[in-house]
Inverse folding.
């Protein structure tokens, strides 16, 4: 859960960062931004609270509230969800990379390239040839 927090927070902060030269968000975008922040805050606090060793009824109630809050605003991220075609395209790209790596390792095994000759060895070989 700790790793999830780091990934979620780092990704969200990077995505929400605005430099000073970007135009101000419109009202609808500001509402979406606030909702997204609320959603990320809820899941982050929920993850942190699940790390408690001895939860009480009170902390269980807080966790339930944060979970409900997270689920209520989760729809804001729906537009970023990949479609079935996107997932299939990604799977084909991954398979292509795996095949390429397998082909390259097969080529490397058959070629058995010699290690490069060091400068001292070249000098010694030249010295022997000149005798």
């Amino acid at each position: 859960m700790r790793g999830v927090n780091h990934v979620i927070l780092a990704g969200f902060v990077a995505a929400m960062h605005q430099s000073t030269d970007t135009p101000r968000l419109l009202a609808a975008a500001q509402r979406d931004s606030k909702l997204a922040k609320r959603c990320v805050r809820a899941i982050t606090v929920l993850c942190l609270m699940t790390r408690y060793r001895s939860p009480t009824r009170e902390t269980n109630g807080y966790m339930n509230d944060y979970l409900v809050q997270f689920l209520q605003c989760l729809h804001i991220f729906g537009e970023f969800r990949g479609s079935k075609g996107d997932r299939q395209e990604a799977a084909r790209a991954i398979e292509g990379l795996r095949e390429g790596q397998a082909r390259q390792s097969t080529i490397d095994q058959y070629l058995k390239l010699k290690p490069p000759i060091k400068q001292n060895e070249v000098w010694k070989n030249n010295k022997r040839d000149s005798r």
